[in-house]
Amino acid sequence: MAFDYKVADLSLAEFGRTEIRLAEHEMPGLMATREEYGPSQPLRGAKIMGSLHMTVQTAVLIETLVALGAEIRWVSCNIFSTQDHAAAAVVVGPDGTPDNPKGVPVFAWKGETLEEYWWCTEQALTWPDGEGPNMILDDGGDATMLVHKGAEYEKAGAVPDPSTADNEEFRVVLQRLKDSFAQDSQKWTRIASRIKGVTEETTTGVHRLYEMARDGKLLFPAINVNDSVTKSKFDNKYGCRHSLVDGINRATDVLIGGKVAVIAGFGDVGKGSAESLRGQGARVLVTEIDPICALQAAMEGYEVVRLEDVVETADIFITTTGNFNIITAEHMSRMKHQAIVGNIGHFDNEIEMVGLENMPGVEKKEVKPQVHEWRFPDGHSIIVLSEGRLLNLGNATGHPSFVMSNSFTNQTIAQIELFTKTEEYSLDVHVLPKILDEKVARLHLDALGVKLTELTKEQAAYIGVDVAGPYKPDHYRY
Ligand code: NAI
Hints:
Elements: H1 13-25, H2 28-37, E1 47-51, H3 56-67, E2 71-75, H4 84-92, E3 106-107, H5 114-124, E4 135-138, H6 142-156, H7 168-183, H8 187-194, E5 197-200, H9 203-214, E6 222-224, H10 229-252, E7 260-264, H11 268-279, E8 283-287, H12 291-299, E9 303-304, H13 307-310, E10 316-319, H14 329-333, E11 339-343, H15 353-357, E12 363-368, E13 371-375, E14 381-385, H16 391-394, H17 401-420, E15 429-430, H18 434-442, H19 457-463
Parallel strand pairs: 1-2, 1-4, 2-3, 4-5, 5-6, 6-15, 7-8, 7-10, 8-9, 10-11, 11-14
Antiparallel strand pairs: 12-13, 13-14
The structure holds 1,4-dihydronicotinamide adenine dinucleotide.
1,4-dihydronicotinamide adenine dinucleotide (NAI) binds at residues 202-204, 232, 235-236, 239-240, 264-270, 287-290, 293, 320-323, 326, 344-346, 390, 392, 399.
């Protein structure tokens, strides 16, 4: 059956399929989920719109959701993060060919413009039958934001005005909403009304959801997947430990050992990133605003500094804060010749790229896609990775399969929870019960040869837990 999609090149599907097959072996949680839930088809009737980096690992997630009965439309949540072979393989599907694709509609390619990115997002939110999805699986909250903003303007009966946007990306969003408003002034209200809920992948998206819930603006319930322990304490930390150096190496191939590297932010991503560079022999400095995280960094043996004091002497700068304007254009103008600047937080505004672009006399030269040399009027230059967007996905291939299996098993369970038990989830942001978090971890133990000790009944009673778990109270921090 013909279906709509837009990817770079379907002839890459075989390469994608081979990598998906290898990834499946490294994603035991997702494969066990297929086995456990496949027969009962808990997601039959679910129409899931996914906005999450279209990588090989995400392909295994998508095909797991399909195996559980869902209908899917998918986009990437970043203009640079799509792996074109993975996107092609998902469209072609395991049983199709490039001439006769039988898979899932994907709208994503590496190197989208902002206009294309938001076009893709709208396509995936627009089902061919004219209806929208009934579930969203989001990473960073862009899909959720588009639906909410659209519905907000429609409720107010106000035509979105792109000239009121305070940045280029939001201008593009408002233009898209303005165009859709002209065609159908109730489109987003209708889409929002059918959505049973959203499951959100990352810290930044979760932050947006809690703000909407606090302000009474949330239109459907949400599950915060990020704060499953088996997500944020694994993907954010060990994933970045793996993929940060991978991105820097593929982009620059500079020897990291001996260099001075600054990690801005020592949360979960910062902890993994600092370890990543220390593992390569870098001398790692950390900046923090939170005394607890600053103390943790110091106890781990990192020097905690202010960016202003090291901006002229460090060699590598990585932002991990989820905050904005961490590295300003003025900072960059003062950096050493060929200092490397990159961000691994969700949005590109951690580095003040707009300020850099508007600085008088600054020239930008493309070294290769997603690697740019910015030369200042005094002749010195810096190297900016992925134009300030998350470099582990822009310059490399993101986190490896095994760690993503943990994150995506949480995503799958969260989708099943919200879709099948909708009435149990109030209009708020929820986390998965700890017993499910423990289940996700359990599914990954065998592959690593872990032999878990079993509590005796007496021991369980002594520490006040059930032999089968959960083993910790909700306030435990790991
Ligand atoms: P987190 O909240 O655990 O850590 C952020 C840290 O930055 C906090 O400790 C905070 O105190 C600190 N911070 C805030 N403003 C600062 C400033 N001005 N200077 C120095 N430090 C500052 O968040 P988490 O989970 O580490 O995530 C960070 C970002 O990375 C988020 O945007 C998240 O969505 C994204 N992320 C990216 C991934 C990737 O693969 N690239 C994977 C997972 C998360």
